Amino acid sequence: SLCVACHGPEGKGMPILGAPDLTHPNAFIYGSSFAQLQQTIRDGRQGQMPAQQALQGNDRVHILAAYVYSLSRQEQSAESR
């Protein structure tokens, strides 16, 4: 629910807020690998995205990173068809 406020219900993002389209791996400024996504979710990005570690905990951060990673891979898969 916190993610939806900026990234939208389908993860398409809100560029005006600086929230990238999570379904497109080229939109990730800090990298699109699983480890990079997990770090961004865990630690946040200064002035852009709040850190989620204290609020969500390790397990939820891991699950969120896996979900975001899967969203970006679905787009890649669709483009290659």
Write a structural description.
With 81 residues, this protein is mainly α. The chain has a single domain (23-79), classed as Cytochrome c-like domain (Cytochrome Bc1 Complex, Chain D, domain 2), CATH 1.10.760. It is built from three helices and no strands. The protein has helices spanning 4-7, 34-43, 53-79. The longest helix has 27 residues, at 53-79. It is globular. The model has no long low-confidence stretch (mean pLDDT 89).
- Provide the β-strand percentage band: under 5%
CATH class: Mainly Alpha
Oligomerization category of the chains in this entry: single chain
Succession of helices and strands = HHH
Task: Give the topology, please.
Blueprint: H1 4-7, H2 34-43, H3 53-79
Helix pairs in contact: 2-3
Pfam families: Cytochrome_CBB3
GO molecular function: electron transfer activity; heme binding; metal ion binding
Keywords: Heme, Iron, Metal-binding
